[in-house]
Amino acid sequence: MNNEMTSLHQDYPQKHIKTLYIIGNGFDIELGYPTRYSDFISSKEWCELIKGNPSSRLLSFIDKRKTNNWFDLETLLLEFASDNKNVLTAKEDKYIYKEDKYIYNEICNSLISYITRIVEEKQEYIHKLEEENIIKVFLNQLHVSQYCRYYTFNYTSFEYIYRSVTSKDVFDNVPEFTYIHGFCGDFLNKDKYCSNSIVLGIADQHEKDINQEFHYMLKSNNPKFHGSNLLSDLAIAENVVIFGHSLSKMDSAYFVDFFSSLNKAKNNKTVIIITKDNDSEVLIKHNLRDMGLNLQKLYSSVKLRFYKTDDLRKDKKGLHEFRDMLNQL
Fold first, then answer.
1. β-strands 178-179, 237-243: how paired?
2. Cα dist. 286→84, 105, 139, 290 in Å?
3. Which residues neighbour 304 within 8 Å (Cβ) at sequence distance 6 or greater?
4. How many CA atoms lie within 13 A of 235 on its CB side?
5. Mean pLDDT, the chain, as a whole number?
6. Does the pLDDT at position 136 exceed 80?
7. What whole-number distance in Å separates Cα of residue 222 and Cα of residue 314?
8. What is the pTM of this model?
9. How would you list the strands of the sheet with 303-308, edge to edge?
10. What are phi and psi of 219, to 5 degrees?
11. Which of 9, 111, 255, 258 sees the fewest Cβ atoms within 10 Å?
């Protein structure tokens, strides 16, 4: 196998990153993967979990909220773990705590099974994407270079997606992605990830909000958790491309310092945010304001541009401009 494929970051000049790519769940959704938590909660894997554990208070807490238009599994785990009603007294059976932890692990296992299944079911589809498909355009223009860094918040294997869509084989260079929350898939690198190493849970910024009995739900307490250089890489990257990430509260710790630094002084950074439509753009801007940012000042301080996939599908000229923009980064 080509050594460059597995060591793109060796001898990397730490003070120069040309382009930093960050992938969120909107990327997988655009690809056709039903990977929203609301999709999982409606799956046969979730139904089997509920059926097999009818008395679980954690599953009952989550399942009662699955009919909402908005659904975030990790936020509901936070709500459960921070609710004092779920803390037992000394007189109560401590077995319930053990059951909660068992069910939490079973939720993770069921999510792995669900994602593994849908990736297999979509295998033929993603191999046959049309040339004008936005995902294919994006991946064909993605620079594979030692001067780029790549991060994904998704559980799906980006290397598999990249090879499938671009028709690259194992002897070609592929972008070496860092998996912020682990991934579902085959063995990649024995020093970094093991198979099916997802990290589902509560961000450390909420540690003080949750009861100690549920600290095992903290992401950093997960034995499969791995640190990353995302914060430092954001600080030194010349261009930042964010595809399909809403910059939500649960992940804001990764971005607040970066955008706050952009908000303070004019600089030459370029930030490209690729999202679905007008509503998702508004949501991202709302989340940026929640970080304490002044958006008018941010626009005057940095080259910030939104691209909406719904618009690109309808506008061939816009899609060509999108392709040229990615190629020039």
1. unpaired
2. 30, 33, 28, 6
3. 271, 273, 298
4. 8
5. 88
6. yes
7. 43
8. 0.89
9. 178-179, 148-152, 17-23, 237-243, 270-275, 303-308
10. -60, -40
11. 9
151-183: burial string, b at 16+ Cβ within 10 Å, e else: bbbbbbbbbbbbbbbbebeeeeebbbbbbbbbb
**Is the pLDDT confidence value at 64 over 90?**
no
Secondary-structure class of domain 3-33+125-180+228-328 per CATH: alpha beta
Residue 75 near residue 81 (C-beta atoms within 8 A): no
What are the sequence ranges of the domains in the chain?
3-33+125-180+228-328, 38-121
Q: What would the 3-class secondary structure string for the chain be? A: CCHHHHCCCCCCCCCCEEEEEEECHHHHHHHCCCCCHHHHCCCHHHHHHHHHCCCCHHHHHHHCCCCCCCCCHHHHHHHHHHCHHHCCCCCCCCHHHHHHHHHHHHHHHHHHHHHHHHHHHCHHHHHCCCCCCHHHHHHHHCCCCCCEEEEECCCCCHHHHHHHHHCCCCCCCCCCCEECCCCCCCCCCCCCCCCCCCCCCECHHHHHHCCHHHHHHEHHHCCCCCCCCHHHHHHHEEEEEEECCCCCHHHHHHCHHHHHHHHHCCCCCEEEEEECCHHHHHHHHHHHHHCCCCHHHHHHHCEEEEEEHHHHHHCHHHHHHHHHHHHHC
Residue 280 amino acid letter: S
Q: Which residue has the tokens 């061939």?
A: 316
Beta strand 270-275 with 237-243 is parallel
Q: Given a cut of 50, is residue 3 above it in pLDDT?
A: no
Say if strands 303-308 and 270-275 run parallel, antiparallel, or are unpaired.
Answer: parallel
By the 10 Å C-beta count (0-12 exposed, 13-18 middle, 19+ buried), 307 is classed as buried
Cα–Cα distance measured from residue 293 to residue 14, given in angstroms and rounded to the nearest whole number: 28
Q: Residue 29's closest CA among 316, 275, 271?
A: 275
* Encoded tokens for 231: 């914060």
